Structures are given as C-alpha cells and as structure tokens.
Amino acid sequence: MRLDKLLAHAGFGTRKDVKQVLKKRKVCVDQKHIRDGACQVSPESNEVTVDGEPVLFTEHVYIMLNKPQGVLSATEDKVGKTVIDLLSEGDKRKGIFPVGRLDKDTEGLLILTTDGQMAHELLSPKKHVAKVYFARILGEVTKDDVATFEKGVTFLDGYHALPAKLDIISAQNGQSTIRVKVVEGKFHQVKKMFEAVGKKVIYLKRERMGELVLDSNLELGEYRLLSEKELALLRGI
C-alpha cells in the first residue's frame, strides 16, 4: 500500500496531516529516509519508522470511550461537540465513527471504530446484543414495573418493546436507582420504557455492551484502545 495510507491507518491523522509528517519528520522505510507518500510499502515485510519509532500497522482501530453528557454521538456537527472532537489529532483515523449512539445527555460506554462490518454485527437487530444501563429515576420503581419490563413494555406511541431485565438498587423518597438490560436500540429506548410506566429518567449511563464492560478507570471524556481480549469478546457476538 501507499506509505501515506499506512501512516494514516497507523494513527498519524488525515492525508493532510500525513503530508506534514512526511515533510517535517524523519519517515524511514527499511532505514531509508522517504518523503514521498506514494511510495509503496508492505506492512508485513518493510520496516517503517517515524523519528526512529516503529510504526505499527492495523487495518482497523477500536476505541472504548467514556462519553460525557453534552456530546453528540456523531462524526460531525455544525453546532455541537461530537465524540470525534474528543479524540486527539493523532487518533482521528480516517473513517472512524461511533458504533450506534448514546443520547446527548447520556454518559458511558461508546465504541469508536473504522470497522464497518463489526459495527453492523453489534447493531444488527437479529443479534439482540444486550446493553446494560445504570439510571436514576424520578419516581419509585416497583416490583410491578420489574414484571412489566420482563413481559415487554408498550411505549406511549404503541410500540411493544422486547422483554428487558430491570433490577431495583434503591427506591425511596420519590426517586430510584436501577440497572436495566435491554436487547434493542430504539431511539430513547430506556427513557420511553420508564415513561410507559409513569416515571422519568433523570440520569443515564451505559455500562456494558455485550460482554464488553466500561473501564472504570476511564474518566468522562477519556478513551483508550480496546485490548485483544476485549476485541475477542466483541468478535464472539
């Protein structure tokens, strides 16, 4: 492949960014200084370095982000801040996008990737990939609500959701904390489920997607690459 394409895949930014890397930094192929991005290289057989550091090529990138409130699950927006804006310039790999979406006011686990096939597998309605959310609710959640969720809630607009597992952590003084596992990804899914039983979500955080659990060490707005073990969990879906 072209050298500039390999550098872009390795996280050195857009094609424009890579041109600057080739111009201003010492890029070597098999210890020979190269400035031409069109130079053909093989990730398997050629040694590529930037300022003496080896370039590790991966076809796709997989990132775990702890999404904060107020940030859009989108690749670009003319007004609001997006999850892509949270990435450093070096991590803004061409074609990277969020897998699914979290509402603007929802926090927690979001995967960013360049792998469209994996995203399709994770989002496919046929797969029923489970998502677990922690929420604070205005209203005291009851055992009757648990039973209703287990049967499948009917939204106020008439849609009948698939069964969901609702666990009550606490319910007192007019508020509740809960965890809920859903296997759908309808727009405002969790919020609409609680609206249907006369309650309101006032805080929502996604903690898990499939077997992938949000890293508790990630502060809001922080991210890291997925480990090989975590990738294996996703590929097993």
From TrEMBL:
Which CDD domains does the UniProt record give? PseudoU_synth_RsuA (cd02553), S4 (cd00165)
Residues forming the RNA-binding S4 domain are 1-63
At the top of the EC hierarchy, this enzyme's class is isomerase
Q: What Gene3D superfamilies does this protein's entry cite?
A: Alpha-L RNA-binding motif, Pseudouridine synthase I, catalytic domain, N-terminal subdomain, RNA-binding S4 domain
Q: Name one Pfam family in it.
A: S4
SUPFAM superfamilies noted in UniProt: Alpha-L RNA-binding motif, Pseudouridine synthase
Protein name per its UniProtKB record? Pseudouridine synthase
